[in-house]
C-alpha cells in the first residue's frame, strides 16, 4: 500500500509521571487512539488517528494527557499552509470531495469583533436591571401595518366618564412568544443524537423559547414539547405530514443553510436505523438525501405557494417562515420572501455550523451574517415592509454581545446552534460527519449517545440562556434602554472599529470616535 | 426483627444505567479513597498493590452500569457472617465489614445477591465492600461520575426524580 502522506495534526503528550494506566482514555476514544499494553503496563497513543476532540484530555483523572496542535508538520510557508497541504494529500488518496463539520474556521473577518456597543453617560441615565424592570421578551411573526381600536366610553350623566373600554379591532397574526431573543437553531435528529434533541427541547420549554427540529422529522418522545417546537420543512420533506406540522408552534421552510448554501444534505444509510427511519418516514438503511433545491420551488411565486399551503394545512394558526443562507443578493431575496408571505426570515451566515458539508463550500460560499442582517434590514425598511416579517439571525452567535449586536443591526432574535452544542460538551473538532462524536452529540452509536445525559444537557443549556439573558439586560441597562424592542435596528448604539468606509456603510454604523 | 430500610431514610446510591459511559472513573476514585495517601498519583504509583475498587462496572456491549453494595434492608451478608464482622448500622442502615473481626471465610461473598463483595488478599484475608464513604458528604463514586449515572439520594427523592429528563414536564 502506498505511503499515506497526510500528516497527523495533533501530538499526544502523555506525562509518564502522571499516567496511572487507568485506561479511561482507551475506553473513551472512539477513534482507537490509545492502546494499553498489559505486558509493559504502558499506554501507547497513535497521533495519526487523533481528531483533537479532547475527550481523553478532559476525562483523564490525573491530567497526564495533553493534545497539542502540531505546528512543525511542514516547513513554514504562508501560502501553502499545513491545511492546504494535508487537504491535497487527503484528496490525492481519496479522489473525493473533502467533508467537514461545524462552521468555517477560516480567518474571514468577524464583524462582531469590529463592532462596539454603546453605554449611557451623563446626558441620559443608565438603568440598573437588578432594580428596574428590563424587558427582553420578543415576538416573532408578522406585525400589523396599522392598528385599529374600538373605544367605548361609558359616560355616567352624574359622575362623568365612568370607564373606557378599548378593544383591538385589528386581527394580529400568530406570533411566537420568546422570553429571551435566543432560540436553538435547526439540528435534525439524525445529525445529532436524540439526547441532544431532548436537551434542547426541555431547555427551550423550561426557559420559554423555541428549538427547531431541523429537517429530520419529530421523534415521538418530543411531542410533549410541541409548544416550543419549530418544525422544519426542507427539500427532502423527511417526516413531514400534517400531524408533524401541527406538532409545532411555527413552521420553517428551509431553503439553505449558512455552512453550505446551494447544497443539499445527505444522511448515510447506516445512520438511518429504527427510530430515525420512523421519524424521517423512510425505509431503514436508505440514504436520506435532501436535494439541493426544493423541486417545487423555482421562484418566489412557487415559494409563496408553499408558504400558503403550509398556512392552510395548519389552519392559519402558526407563523410560517423561511430560512435562507446569507448569499450575495440576500437583500432582494429576503424582500421576495417577505412579499411571498413569510412571517419570519431566518438568515444563516457564512460561519454557520453543519453536521457535514464539503469543506470548500463551507469555507468559501456565502457572506458574513453581520453584513447580511444590516443589508436585509435596510432593504426591508426602504421598501416599507420590515413590519411584515421578523428577522432571525444565525451563523455563529458566540456570546451575548453577538446577540445584542445582531439585534442592534436589525435582527429580531437569533438562533444558536454551535453555542448550544458547545454548552453540552462539543469541542469543535469538526468531525461530526464521521458519526464518531466522542462527546455523544453528532452520533447515533449507542456507546456514544449515552455520553450526553439530557438532564445535564438541559441544565447546561438553561444556564447558558440564563447567563446570556442576564448579560443582555446588563448591556441594555448600561445603554439606558429598558426594552429590547427599542434596540432593534438602533445602529446609533454601534460603532465600528478597524473597518473601512464601505464596510461601515453596509453595516450602517459610524466609526468609533464619530459622534452625532 | 430486623429494622426495615425504609425506617432509616438513608440516602443510597441509585444507578442510571442508561447514562453509564463505562469510563470506570468511579472505580478509580474508589480505589484512591480507600488508599493510604488518598492522592491519586501516589496511590496508583506506589500503594496500588492490591487496592480493590468497591464499585464494579459491569458491561455487556454498550450496556454498562456501576454497582456497589446495595446496603440491603435485609442484608444476607450480615446474616451469613460467622464472625460478626459484617454489621448493619442501626442508625444509618449502612452495611460495613469490620476488617479486624473479618476472618476471610467468604460466607458473605457466597450469599451476596449482587456480587459486590470481593476478596481482598493484600494483607490478612478480608472481605472488601462499599462503605458508602461514610466520612464524605457524597460517596466518591457519585462525586466523580462525569455523566451523573450515579445518584446519591433518599427513597423519596428518587421517586420524585425519575431518570434523565423524564422528571421534567414540558411547560
Give an account of the 3D structure:
- Chain A is α/β, with parallel strands linked by helices.
- Chain A has two domains: 10-73, Alpha-Beta Plaits; 176-511, Alpha-Beta Barrel (TIM Barrel), CATH 3.20.20.
- Chain A contains 15 helices and 23 strands.
- In chain A, helix 4 (194-207) packs across helix 14, helix 8 (330-339) crosses helix 10 and helix 11 crosses helix 14.
- The model of chain A has no long low-confidence stretch (mean pLDDT 94).
- Chain B is of the alpha+beta class and 171 residues long.
- Chain B is globular, with a radius of gyration of 17 Å.
- The interface between A and B is medium-sized, with 36 and 29 residues.
Quick structural summary:
The complex is a heterodimer of chains A (516) and B (171). With 516 residues, chain A is of the alpha/beta class. Chain A has helices at 24-28, 55-59, 82-94, 194-207, 242-246, 274-280, 300-313, 330-339, 359-364, 369-382, 400-409, 418-423, 446-449, 454-478, 501-507; strands spanning 10-14, 34-37, 42-45, 65-69, 99-100, 115-117, 138-140, 149-156, 160-168, 176-178, 182-184, 211-212, 229-233, 250-254, 265-267, 288-290, 320-325, 344-348, 357-358, 390-394, 413-416, 494-496, 510-511.
Features:
heterodimer; A: 516 residues; alpha/beta; Alpha-Beta Plaits; TIM Barrel; 2 domains; eight-stranded parallel β-sheet; three-stranded mixed β-sheet; 15 helices; 23 strands; B: 171 residues; alpha+beta; two-stranded antiparallel ribbon; 24% helix; 18% strand; globular; disordered N terminus
Largest sheet of chain B: 2 strands, antiparallel
Kindly, what is the distance between the CA atoms of the first and last residues of chain A, rounded to a whole number of angstroms?
69 Å
The overall pLDDT of chain A, averaged over residues, is: 94
Domain module tally of chain A: 2
List low-pLDDT spans of chain A. none
CATH topology of the largest domain in chain A: TIM Barrel
Helix content estimate of chain B? 10-25%
Number of strands of chain B: 8
How many alpha or pi helices of chain B?
Answer: 7
CATH class division of the largest domain in chain A: Alpha Beta
Tell me roughly what share of residues is in helical segments of chain A. Answer: 25-40%
Name the CATH homologous superfamily of the largest domain in chain A. Aldolase class I
| SSE pattern of chain B | HEHHEEHEEHEEHEH
* Quaternary structure: heterodimer
Mean pLDDT of chain B: 87
Helix/strand-derived category of chain B reads alpha+beta
